[in-house]
Specification:
This protein is α+β, with helices and mostly antiparallel strands. It has a single domain, classed as STM4215-like (2-Layer Sandwich). It contains three helices and nine strands, in the order ααβββαββββββ. Strands 1, 2, 3, 4, 5 and 6 form a six-stranded mixed beta sheet that branches. Strands 7-8-9 form a three-stranded antiparallel beta sheet, with no helix packed on it. The chain is globular, with a radius of gyration of 17 Å. The two termini are 31 Å apart.
Length: 170
């Protein structure tokens, strides 16, 4: 589960570092479901893992389904505002290079699977949109590469990151 926590932290960092997202939620991106947050402050985004599958062909690789919930106060914002935020989140995650050696995890791919409708929650007067993403991630080494091991053959492959591109070493 360590890999899943690192993936959520990586997504949180990307979102809080994005001006269009930060302008709406500041740094309120929680890495757990909003119901598990003591006294959440809105507007906010919550991230949590729906499913966590180990990749059988690559040692320690994970494939996650992550739900990203957007929360805005309905008295101050409209459905258009929350859909604009959803578009900003999707733009940054679908194009962001998520390799970050400090967290010792590399996100090889992340893409949106589904988006729910705009929902209203009368108490505490919120608009809510759930977004579902698939994330494929691999542990990285402490140096400048990613080591993958094929469990069937035992072969190891080292990947390096240069200019935001993951390349294989021959």
């Amino acid at each position: 589960m360590k890999a899943a926590k690192r993936v959520l932290e990586k997504i949180r960092r990307v979102l809080t570092d994005t001006p269009a997202v930060r302008d709406v939620v500041q740094r309120r991106v929680y890495t757990k479901h909003i119901s598990q947050v003591d006294d959440p402050i809105y507007p906010a985004i919550s991230l949590y893992v729906l499913t966590n599958n180990l990749n059988n062909s690559v040692q320690e690789a994970v494939q996650l389904s992550v739900q990203i919930d957007l929360w805005l106060q309905s008295g101050r914002k409209t459905a258009v505002n929350i859909m604009d935020l959803a578009e900003d989140v999707n733009k940054v995650l679908n194009r962001q290079d998520l390799t970050d050696k400090n967290l010792e995890i590399a996100v090889a791919s992340i893409f949106q699977l589904d988006a729910g409708p705009v929902m209203t929650d009368p108490e505490p007067n919120l608009l809510h949109v759930p977004l579902i993403y698939r994330v494929d991630a691999f542990p990285t080494t402490s140096d400048d590469g990613i080591i993958l091991q094929d469990q069937a053959t035992g072969d190891k492959i080292e990947l390096n990151v240069e200019d935001g591109q993951i390349i294989t070493e021959d």
